[in-house]
């Protein structure tokens, strides 16, 4: 067969990934959703997966230290992410749990569960499945270091513990939850210590990550900085159709 008659082989296009990592309350979830909307990308809130697992464990009577049972529960987690007028709606076993997974109790349990190696491994493949065309914005604590080490752009978003506690306190009050600012600050400090010192996937910036401190910055300023950083990446430019 002549070269002219040989069928053309289309190159495999691997969707790009932008990762946004950082501690609890740094604003990474808001930035991820806004960025995904800006660029027309899919979004992965990896922390929500651990919160969903924590809630499922609570509902099924599984303790946060029972690693074997949690691994089985993670492997069969009946969870879905649905769009609700531009907002993420989280479904667990057919029930809308968008609000209930945001309680401080579930957040603390999720942090403990996330430190378990076999549980993290069980959820890894599920996170990889979110990588679809045209691209993905993934937020969490180890998106750039472990889950998507080949990401085109890696952001590490941080802020002081006091600023993050204040933000969380206001969010809880707005959603109708009872909240104590000192208790939230203590929980955030304990969670930071646990997340940074765990042996598996500790919270830390990827070597090539751009570190942004949002303590004194508003959401719009942080978003603008991330958008500009994305536009400088040549391997992202062709995918940023809505920029």
């Amino acid at each position: 067969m002549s070269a002219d008659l040989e069928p053309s082989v289309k190159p495999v296009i691997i969707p790009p990934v932008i990762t946004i990592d950082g501690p609890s309350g740094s604003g990474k979830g808001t930035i991820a959703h806004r960025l995904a909307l800006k660029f027309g990308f899919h979004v992965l809130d990896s922390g929500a997966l651990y919160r969903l697992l924590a809630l499922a464990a609570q509902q099924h009577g599984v303790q946060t230290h029972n690693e074997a049972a949690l691994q089985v529960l993670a492997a069969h987690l009946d969870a879905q992410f649905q769009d609700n007028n531009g907002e993420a709606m989280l479904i667990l076993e057919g029930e809308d749990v968008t609000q209930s997974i945001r309680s401080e109790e579930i957040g603390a349990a999720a942090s403990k569960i996330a430190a378990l190696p076999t549980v993290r491994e069980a959820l890894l493949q599920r996170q990889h499945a979110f990588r679809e065309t045209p691209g993905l914005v993934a937020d969490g604590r180890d998106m750039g270091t472990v889950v998507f080490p080949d990401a085109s752009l890696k952001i590490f978003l941080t802020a002081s513990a006091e600023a993050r506690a204040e933000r969380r306190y206001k969010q809880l009050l707005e959603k109708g939850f009872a909240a104590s600012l000192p208790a939230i600050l203590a929980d955030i400090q304990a969670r930071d210590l646990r997340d940074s010192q765990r042996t598996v996937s500790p919270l830390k910036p990827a070597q090539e990550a751009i570190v942004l401190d949002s303590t004194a910055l508003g959401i719009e300023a942080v978003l603008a900085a991330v958008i500009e950083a994305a536009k400088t990446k040549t391997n992202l430019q062709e995918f940023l159709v809505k920029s």
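The chain has a mean pLDDT of 86. The radius of gyration is 19 Å.
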